[in-house]
Design goal:
alpha/beta; six-stranded parallel sheet; three-stranded parallel sheet; TIM Barrel; 255 residues
């Protein structure tokens, strides 16, 4: 079974991830050695990276795929983005920019949208979820276990899950790379069945690496092999193909 990474900052020189082609190639080789067959490249859009446009990301992903083929690195790269959510945003405008292709959906399939909250504050998502649903987009909240306000107020998450927001946990969170509190919350969310994806959120070669195999082993022990395969392969494969994902337990409490 191949692993699929839905959240990775591997495209060179486009955001705060890989700084150049050499680092991006090193990340790709590390991912392949770890058993990853497909990466959805998710450079930041909006916020500090408002300059990143859909066309430029698609072109960068295609160019990097050609480089991988030239270097005989057997990794598939698909274009995507991680959209920064900040106070004052106009939700309807974000949905319209997704529809136009200026902002990217995951794998450029026009369905799943990766949302990125600030690290320390929670920006209410209720209105945005309504706007996305009305435009037939499916939101995926990146690494909720790492948001400090969600950690302090876990009652924030259940209404989001019930509203159809899918959750993506970072592999490193499950392995303690962000501290014991984050690891505990990540484990609990997986055990409660409200997580649909585990991804690397890799940025570099020496830290925040593009690795999933160790997290897969942890998931297998924590929730069973079937759950690990679902979170690291089956659900990500569906997103890469633009297919729907069903939340297993949309009404579960997280207190």
């Amino acid at each position: 079974m191949s692993l699929i990474d839905l959240h990775c900052h591997i495209l060179p020189g486009i955001d705060d991830g890989a700084g150049d082609r050499a680092e991006a190639l090193a990340m790709a080789r590390l991912a392949v050695a770890d058993g990853i067959a497909t990466i959805v490249a998710t450079p930041h859009q909006l916020g500090p990276f408002a300059h990143n446009r859909g066309d430029s990301i698609r072109a960068a992903a295609a160019a990097f795929q050609l480089l991988l083929e030239e270097e005989q690195v057997t990794l598939r790269i698909l274009p995507g983005a991680e959209l920064r959510i900040e106070p004052g945003m106009v939700e309807a405008e974000l949905a319209a920019r997704l529809a136009s292709g200026e902002l990217l959906t995951l794998a450029n399939q026009g369905r799943h949208v990766l949302l990125d909250l600030p690290e320390r504050v929670y920006v209410p998502l209720d209105r945005l979820l309504v706007e996305l649903a009305a435009a037939a987009f499916v939101p995926i909240l990146a690494h909720p276990e790492r948001n400090r306000e969600i950690l302090a107020r876990p009652e924030i998450l259940p209404p989001l899950v019930q509203a159809g927001c899918l959750l993506q946990v970072t592999a490193g969170s499950l392995l303690g790379e962000f501290g014991d509190e984050v690891r505990h919350v990540a484990d609990r969310l997986v055990q409660q069945g409200v997580v649909q994806f585990v991804a690397s959120d890799a940025h570099h070669i020496h830290f925040r690496k593009p690795l999933l195999a160790e997290a897969f082993a942890h998931l297998a022990q924590l929730a069973g092999v079937d759950a690990a395969e679902r979170l690291c392969h089956e659900n990500p494969a569906a997103v890469a193909a633009g297919q729907p994902i069903s939340a297993l337990n949309p009404t579960i409490g997280m207190e």
